[in-house]
Design a protein that fits this description.
This protein is α/β, with parallel strands linked by helices. It contains six helices and nine strands; from the N terminus they run βαβαβαβαβαββαββ. The structure holds 5-O-phosphono-beta-D-ribofuranosylamine (GRF).
C-alpha cells in the first residue's frame, strides 16, 4: 500500500542518545516517499549525540534534555512529554535512546511510543545483546520494533527481522548485519502506524489488511544443502 497522500503526514518526535543511524534511515525513507510522516522534533538526552547533527542537516528542530539535570525519572519524562506535545507529536519514536521511560511518558502517549531493539525479543532483552547472541551460539538473531510499555523491551511486537549468525561472527559483524535490517523495518513500522493499520490487542499487534502468504519458506542455518 502506498502512503495515502490525501491525509496529513503523521507527526513524529524522535528521541536519540547516540549516532542516530535509525533516525537517518527514517529521514531517508520519508524523503523517498515510503513513509507518510514528518519529523517535528529530535530530542537527545546527550549533547554529544551525533544524531543531533543529522537532524540539523535535515533542518529539524532539536532539543537537548540532559537527564542528569533532573531529580527523578518522572521529572525528566514530564519535560520530555511537554516538548513533544508542544511540537504536536502524534507518535514518539525511540531511536537509539538509552533511557527507560516512566509511566509519565506512557500516560502522555499510550500505545504511541515505538522502540527498536537489536534482538529477536523476547530473546536477549537489555544491553550488549549482539555479544550475548554470538556467545550463546544462536543461529539466528535480528531486531524487533515494538510499542513501549512499563517493562524493559517487552511491549507488543510490531515487526521483526531475522538474520543468520555465522561461526566467524563477532559482536561487531553481527551488529552491522542487524543494523542494516533495523533501517528497513523501523520505517515500515512507522508507515503502518501512519496508515492506521496497527491495532494492539493485549500482547499482540494486529496489522489490518495483511494476509499471511500461503507458504513462507523456513529459514535454516546452517543451510540443509552444502554450498557448492
Ligand atoms: C541500534 O542497534 C538500536 O537497535 C539500539 O541502539 C543502536 C544504535 O542506534 N536501540 P542508532 O544508530 O543511534 O539509531
Amino acid at each position: 500500500m502506498a502512503p495515502n497522500k490525501s491525509i496529513e503526514p503523521l507527526k513524529l518526535g524522535v528521541l536519540i542518545s547516540g549516532s542516530g543511524t535509525n533516525l537517518q534511515a527514517i529521514l531517508d525513507a520519508i524523503a523517498r516517499g515510503e513513509v507518510h510522516a514528518e519529523i517535528r522534533i529530535v530530542i537527545s538526552n546527550r549533547a554529544d549525540a551525533y544524531g543531533l547533527q543529522r537532524a540539523r542537516q535535515a533542518g529539524i528542530p532539536t532539543v537537548i534534555i540532559e537527564h542528569r539535570r533532573f531529580s527523578s525519572r518522572e521529572a525528566f519524562d514530564a519535560e520530555l512529554a511537554g516538548e513533544l506535545n508542544r511540537a504536536g507529536v502524534e507518535l514518539v519514536v525511540l531511536a537509539g535512546f538509552m533511557r527507560l521511560l516512566s509511566s509519565v511518558m506512557l500516560r502522555a502517549f499510550p500505545d504511541r511510543i515505538m522502540n527498536i531493539h537489536p534482538a529477536l525479543l523476547p530473546s536477549f532483552p537489555g544491553l550488549h545483546v549482539q555479544k550475548a547472541a554470538v556467545e550463546y551460539g544462536v543461529r539466528f538473531a535480528g531486531c524487533t520494533v515494538f510499542f513501549v510499555t512499563e517493562g524493559v523491551d517487552d511491549g507488543p511486537i510490531i515487526i521483526q527481522a531475522a538474520v543468520p549468525v555465522y561461526p566467524e561472527d563477532s559482536e561487531e559483524t553481527l551488529a552491522a548485519r542487524i543494523l542494516t535490517q533495523e533501517h528497513r523495518i523501523y520505517p515500515r513500522a512507522i508507515e503502518l502506524f501512519a496508515q492506521g493499520r496497527l491495532k494492539v490487542v493485549g500482547r499482540r499487534v494486529i496489522v489490518k489488511g495483511w494476509q499471511a502468504p500461503d507458504d513462507t519458506p523456513a529459514l535454516i542455518n546452517p543451510p540443509l544443502e552444502e554450498p557448492k
